[in-house]
Design brief:
Helix content is 17%, strand content 20%. The protein is α+β, with helices and mostly antiparallel strands. It folds into two domains: 89 residues, no CATH class; 47 residues, no CATH class. The strands form two sheets. Strands 4-3-2-1-5 form a five-stranded mixed beta sheet. The chain has a two-stranded antiparallel sheet with strand order 6-7. It is globular. It starts with 14 loop residues before the first strand and ends in a 14-residue tail after the last strand.
Length: 162
């Protein structure tokens, strides 16, 4: 036979965001019932369902993986989720990159990524020492400097010049 290759196309993940706020104490069963009644969607479909608490300080994500439900919560330590979809429908569909922006407490409709909060070198060093990542830091890293709070790639050592 020839050089035939099987190409598998992965279907796009469907992400539904409930427009109406929920009681943040709701669990898996209550949220699954909301999916059926309010969103007119099957909670066993494999979609991700996002809900926002009334206080706008937390987002709950419900998903079914074929064996059981996952329920994740992100609660902000400061501030609120300012952006949330509006409209007359019960839910809005978002794409994966929009959900990433939403979970970062940013506007998913924005053209650019949010500006990272700057962290002082002292706080950064404390995070490293507490097991965030093992690192070797350059002696020029002074406590008065600031470094961008971006995720570090997996490496065994780092060198920062401030």
């Amino acid at each position: 036979m020839g050089d035939a290759r099987l190409i598998q196309i992965t279907p796009q993940l469907r992400i539904l965001v409930a427009i109406e706020a929920i009681d943040g104490r709701k669990g898996i069963d209550s949220l699954a019932q909301l999916c059926r009644e309010k969103l007119d969607a099957d909670p066993f479909s494999g979609c991700l369902f996002l809900f926002r608490s009334r206080s706008a300080k937390a987002i709950r994500i419900l998903a079914y993986d074929g064996q059981g439900f996952w329920l994740a919560t992100k609660r902000l330590s400061k501030g609120r989720f300012r952006w949330w979809p509006t409209g007359l429908e019960a839910a809005k569909t978002l794409r994966a990159h929009q959900v990433q922006m939403l979970l970062a407490a940013a506007d998913p409709d924005a053209a650019a990524a949010p500006v990272w909060r700057r962290v002082s070198a002292k706080i950064f060093l404390q995070a490293l020492r507490s097991g965030f990542r093992s690192a070797t830091l350059n002696n020029r890293c002074r406590s008065g400097g600031a470094i961008a709070a971006e995720p570090l790639p997996a490496k065994t050592s780092y060198s920062f010049a401030i």
